[in-house]
């Protein structure tokens, strides 16, 4: 209880800082391997020249994702290696944020540790959470992990190129998600084929403009 | 620290109880949606008539998996709904185990909450952990979640029917896994096509016999 309050205190400070600089911040969450890094790679490739994007990539071990984001063209990328914690917290973000030039940043993307449970309890000062679910992990996930879907503003269904390779039903996952959170925006795409990517980019750009 | 010691105390009691009754116990762990329940459904279908199998299916919310296991023929199935905890613990197992007839059980299968981090820190009294990874979640998972792969005895690579739909490399995931844990048994299969299932069933039956 006390720990959460300290996190909330730090998260509020981050939020104020980001809002002061008109930086739109997203916290990307999902199971391991749903495609967070892939979506960020595609987003950097499409928008990295028109918008200044800061990226934080967190994992228990390795800096693999930060390296991938840099290779994809990310100019302001920092890894966070938790060494054990199953979620990022506001203290870690505060430390990393001090290395970014907030004057120039338009967007801050935080890739959280792959985990559908714990990250939902740790505010990082973001504007909103983006929850990814892939068509390969089962359409009951919103019901099984309601906390994460309840606290997200948008759900991205990734790997639609693999529809038909399991009993995953697109309409059913949307129905389940809306049961948990009626206000969720829902997008479907494939990072692999590019299908639906435009809609994501438009959604993003609209939100960035709204933020100003 | 104190909490973990209480868990270890209870886990030791469970272990003693299971060993006394010569029950071989497996703790199934993986990311959400890698195929734990699917593998258990197949295993029940194949062995449920020749061996008495007790099943515990844990999730944050829903009893979906316990229902699936019962429909698959499981005769002794109990759900655990944690309501928030991102992992099963020995206290929960102790409570459920009191409802099983340990005199008749040959096998106990525990399906943990889908999570590659937290369950690795909570001994449930099992003989060994079985970690599943699917070919759709990326071959760097053993490096990103070393704790789980280090504490497992066998890694099951599931969804081999989907090889070729991403950059997942079977040899690379094995190399990564053995970097973390040189003693890992590694099996590859598809719950969907049945490919490799025989090898899993043989592995299991050999381990059951060894346990006696
Ligand atoms: N078929 C298919 N594969 C995809 C798609 N998007 C990502 N992948 C693959 O899915 C695997 C995981 O993708 P990542 O982008 O690393 O997922 P992630 O959520 O960042 O993973 P973690 O950070 O480790 O939790 C990789 O093998 C990707 O190539 C997609 O749209 N279709
Ligand atoms: N293509 C393919 N799909 C599979 C395979 N095994 C399981 N699936 C699908 O993967 C999805 C998840 O399977 P589950 O068995 O529910 O996975 P799980 O690990 O029990 O999921 P949670 O308990 O929710 O973490 C379902 O849509 C299954 O049909 C496989 O070998 N190949
Ligand atoms: Mg990633
Ligand atoms: Mg399951
Ligand atoms: Zn946690
Ligand atoms: Zn935990």
Characterize this entry briefly:
The structure is a homodimer of 212-residue chains. Chain A contains eight helices and seven strands.
Question: What would you say this structure looks like, in words?
Answer:
The structure is a homodimer of 212-residue chains. With 212 residues, chain A is an alpha/beta fold. Chain A contains eight helices and seven strands. Chain A has one domain: Rossmann fold. Chain A has a seven-stranded parallel beta sheet with strand order 3-2-4-1-5-6-7, with helices on both faces. The longest helix of chain A is centred in the first third of the chain and has 19 residues. The first copy, chain A, is globular and about 45 Å long. Chains A and B meet through helix 5 of A and helix 5 of B. One zinc ion (ZN) binds next to loops of chain B.
Which range does the strand content of chain A fall in?
15-25%
Number of E-state strands of chain A: 7
Main structural class of chain A: alpha/beta
CATH architecture descriptor of chain A: 3-Layer(aba) Sandwich
Tally of domains of chain A: 1
List all distinct small molecules, including ions and cofactors, that are bound in this structure: guanosine-5'-triphosphate, magnesium ion, zinc ion
The biggest sheet of chain A amounts to: 7 strands, parallel
Q: Spatial order of the strands in the main sheet of chain A?
A: 3-2-4-1-5-6-7
Low-pLDDT regions of chain A: none
């Amino acid at each position: 209880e006390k720990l959460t309050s300290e996190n909330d205190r730090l998260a509020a400070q981050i939020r104020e800082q980001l809002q002061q600089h008109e930086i739109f911040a997203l916290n990307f969450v999902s199971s391991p391997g749903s495609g967070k890094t892939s979506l960020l790679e595609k987003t950097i490739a499409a928008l990295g020249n028109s918008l200044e994007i800061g990226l934080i990539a967190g994992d228990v071990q390795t800096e693999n994702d930060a390296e991938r984001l840099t290779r994809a063209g990310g100019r302001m990328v920092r890894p966070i290696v938790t060494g054990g914690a199953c979620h990022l917290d506001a203290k870690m973000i505060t430390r990393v944020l001090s290395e970014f030039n907030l004057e120039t940043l338009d967007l801050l993307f935080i890739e959280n540790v792959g985990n559908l449970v714990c990250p939902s309890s740790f505010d990082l000062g973001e504007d909103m959470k983006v929850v990814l679910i892939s068509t390969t992990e089962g359409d009951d996930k919103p019901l099984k992990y309601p906390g994460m879907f309840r606290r997200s503003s948008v759900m991205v269904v990734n790997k639609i190129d693999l529809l038909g390779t399991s009993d995953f039903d697109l309409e059913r996952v949307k129905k389940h998600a809306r049961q948990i959170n009626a206000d969720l925006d829902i997008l479907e795409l494939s990072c692999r084929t590019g299908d639906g990517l435009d809609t994501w980019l438009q959604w993003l750009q609209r939100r960035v403009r709204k933020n100003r």
